[in-house]
């Protein structure tokens, strides 16, 4: 009888699957409630901590072996505040668009955390992830390929309502789509037209209307004006500023055009080889930079008007100003696959030959390791001109 009692106690102590599912459902409900809670203006709404995304490099056909990795994003951290525009600039291939996809959870992060209202979206699934994606939308770079040519404008803008029917009832969707077209400056009667019947600027407005459909709190703008003419760029940027004030939106604005980034952004982050090299206000970044590869490295374009005189490059008012202690001659940018590629390399201006690199023991010298060919020595090669 005593043994039977022990067996009964063991059976009673076994966890019930139904109880486990109830706990998971309760946790998911708490996450959804936290995601849907409002955030005060000026409070952080998105917090990125040590975000990493490495794409493996493999060798072989049948038996693949990883021989390395492309460090597209390597330890990026920043905060986005409610109602703020954070601009992200950097050279092509530095990881800007990969960061945008990680923030949308379109790419799975190798490591790191992305907190939206205190919830790590890299670990969410189900209803909680669906709620996050409703509140974080994206405007893509290419207004031509980001719209389905087989769908009408009404179907493109109204498609988010099929996934989130609670936002707009089925009988009210046409009116909602027409309102969104009017908000972005398009004629509501265009609802039955196809994307090929619009210009590039009008297509980008359609993409913005699709991003606004679910009343999001954050919009990730991945170079939204880079494919547009200058006059159309100004119209789209002014529209985005107007919508931000009207709907209390927060933007992550990725672009190459430094003047547009400075115009629209409250703070600017500079990315280089997968890292956030510098972040601060526009005055700090543009006028008082601390990183050699800052936005001031770009030489300004022509004058502000057609009648302004063209100035020599050396005397141009927007020409890059060297940092204190920086040599005048610099090496070409290193390749992101090379070991130590994050270092900033300088030629030795005091060595007599401006084209020569300092040796490994030189106090101002810098080296990066280069992958060795079979039969070469073990020591790292020093990059020379033309390599």
Task: Describe the overall structure.
The chain has 387 residues and is an alpha/beta fold. The chain folds into 2 domains: 44-287, P-loop containing nucleotide triphosphate hydrolases (Rossmann fold, 3-Layer(aba) Sandwich); 328-387, no CATH class. The chain has 10 helices and 10 strands. It has helices spanning 2-13, 17-36, 96-103, 126-135, 153-163, 173-183, 200-212, 230-247, 258-264, 282-287; strands spanning 44-59, 65-81, 85-90, 111-116, 119-120, 136-139, 218-222, 250-254, 267-272, 275-281. The protein has a 6-stranded mixed β-sheet, with helices on both faces. A hairpin with a 2-residue loop joins β9 and β10. α5 (153-163) packs parallel to α7 (200-212). Belongs to the ABC transporter superfamily. GO terms for molecular function: ATP binding; ATP hydrolysis activity.
Largest sheet: 6 strands, mixed
- CATH class term of the largest domain: Alpha Beta
Structural class: alpha/beta
CATH-defined fold name of the largest domain:
Rossmann fold
**Uncertain ranges:** 1-23, 296-306, 308-320, 323-332, 339-387
Q: What is the C-alpha radius of gyration, as a whole number of Å?
A: 26 Å
Helix content: 25-40%
Per CATH, the architecture of the largest domain is 3-Layer(aba) Sandwich
Number of domains in the coordinates? 2
SSE order: HHEEEHEEHEHHHEHEHEEH
CATH superfamily of the largest domain: P-loop containing nucleotide triphosphate hydrolases
Largest beta sheet: strand ordering: 6-7-8-3-9-10
Mean pLDDT: 75
- Individual helix count: 10
The end-to-end span amounts to 85 Å
Strand content: 15-25%
């Amino acid at each position: 009888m005593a043994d039977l009692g022990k067996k009964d106690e063991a059976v009673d102590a076994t966890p019930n699957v139904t109880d486990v599912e109830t706990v998971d459902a309760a946790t998911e409900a708490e996450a959804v409630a936290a995601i849907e809670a409002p955030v005060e203006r000026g409070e952080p709404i998105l917090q990125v901590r040590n975000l990493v995304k490495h794409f493996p490099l493999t060798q072989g056909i049948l038996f693949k072996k990883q021989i390395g990795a492309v460090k597209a994003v390597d330890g990026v951290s920043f905060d986005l505040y409610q109602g703020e525009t954070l601009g992200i600039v950097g050279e092509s291939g530095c990881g800007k668009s990969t960061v945008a996809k990680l923030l949308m959870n379109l790419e799975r992060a190798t490591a790191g955390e992305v907190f939206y209202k205190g919830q790590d979206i890299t670990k969410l699934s189900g209803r909680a992830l669906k709620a996050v994606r409703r509140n974080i939308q994206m405007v893509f770079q290419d207004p031509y390929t980001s719209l389905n040519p087989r769908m009408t404008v009404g179907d493109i803008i109204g498609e988010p309502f099929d996934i989130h029917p609670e936002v707009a009832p089925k009988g009210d969707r046409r009116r909602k789509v027409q309102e969104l077209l009017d908000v972005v400056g398009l004629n509501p009667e265009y609802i039955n037209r196809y994307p090929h019947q619009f210009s590039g600027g009008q297509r980008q407005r359609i993409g913005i209307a699709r991003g606004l459909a679910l009343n999001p709190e954050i919009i990730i703008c991945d170079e939204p004006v880079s494919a547009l003419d200058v006059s159309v760029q100004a119209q789209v940027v002014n529209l985005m500023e107007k919508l931000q004030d009207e709907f209390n939106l927060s933007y992550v604005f990725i672009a190459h055009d430094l003047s547009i980034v400075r115009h629209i952004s409250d703070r600017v982050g500079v990315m280089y080889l997968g890292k956030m090299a510098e972040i601060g206000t526009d005055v700090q970044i543009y006028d008082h930079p601390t990183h050699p590869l800052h936005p001031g490295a770009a030489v300004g374009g022509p004058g502000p008007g057609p009648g302004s005189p063209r100035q020599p490059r050396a005397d141009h008012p927007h020409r890059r100003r060297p940092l204190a202690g920086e040599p005048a001659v610099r090496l070409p940018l290193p390749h992101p696959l090379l070991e130590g590629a994050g270092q900033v390399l300088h030629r030795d201006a005091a060595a007599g030959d401006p084209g020569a690199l300092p040796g490994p023991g030189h106090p101002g010298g810098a080296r990066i390791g280069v992958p060795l060919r079979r039969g070469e020595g073990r020591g790292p090669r020093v990059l020379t001109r033309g390599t």
